[in-house]
Amino acid sequence: MKTTLAEMQIFIAVIETGTLSRAAYELDLTVSAVSRALRRLEEKLDTVLVRRSTRRLESTEEGRTFLEYAKQIIASVEDAEEHVTMKRRHPSGKIRIIASTSLVLHVITPVLHRYQKCYPEIEIEIISNDNVYDLLEHRSDVAVCIGKLKDSGLHAKILGLCQMMFVASPRYIAEHGMPHRVDALKSHRLIGYKQNSLMNDWPLDTGEEHYYKIQPSIVASNSEIIRQLAIHSSGIACLPEPYVKNDITKGDLVNLNIKEKLRVREPLNAVYYKNIVLPSRTSSFVEFLAESLVLPSE
């Protein structure tokens, strides 16, 4: 084998962080050491792996191919070391999890203490990101997200299905009335998303389309802000059931039974890279989350 594991690790860090300086910081090396290792790797392979630009380094087609194999090799070695060195039959090491603020608060956090009891040797790092689930950028092992997967380079394990619900506070309903039909929404204050306009297409049968494109009275950048706005009587919101289930039980929100409401359930996914040997710490979290969530599977 021409290349070493150290060179592979440096190359992966360079691509994941986007700059030599950030890679050097992550690996506790000098920038010159990282630069030399990258140049040495390209010389061994007799190809250009990285394009240099003023702001960020990007992989070439050959670099992306090598990255896929390098990550598989490193993951396999780490998994082998984990299995050989652990004294008990329990996964260990650090797992980095990325999810939206709402998923962290309402799906992951409530069950995490039980996961920690089952796997006390695993160190957990949670990253909240409400817009883009970029595993490379955040150097994460697994992402948890709602919706269909678009990136073909990733694999999704469906943990369950989330019913979309229309909700408002009891005070809002008392002041503005209960909307029973989709046409009645035109006279109500509706809460929508600022960045993700597709989330403003509500699952309501309008006769011509199986969605109702709302004109929000107020918009917010993430689901947790929208939930809080609904609780504090700013309008009607459409949110996944796990986000509002406890609020409905406590009476802080009311589930609106609009006649044209469609039974739309979005998949809740655990997302990770395709064609990679999952470390046991990652697979343990994915399997635990699937077993712990009380969500329908079909």
UniProtKB/TrEMBL annotation:
It comes from the Bacteria. The lineage of its organism: Bacteria, Pseudomonadati, Pseudomonadota, Gammaproteobacteria, Enterobacterales. The keyword Transport does not apply. Belongs to the LysR transcriptional regulatory family. Pfam families: HTH_1, LysR_substrate. Residues 3-60 form the HTH lysR-type domain. InterPro entries: LysR-type_TF_proteobact-type, LysR_HTH_N, LysR_subst-bd, WH-like_DNA-bd_sf, WH_DNA-bd_sf. GO terms for molecular function: DNA-binding transcription factor activity; sequence-specific DNA binding. This is LysR family transcriptional regulator. Signal peptide: none annotated. Keywords: DNA-binding, Transcription, Transcription regulation. One of its GO terms (biological process) is DNA-templated transcription.
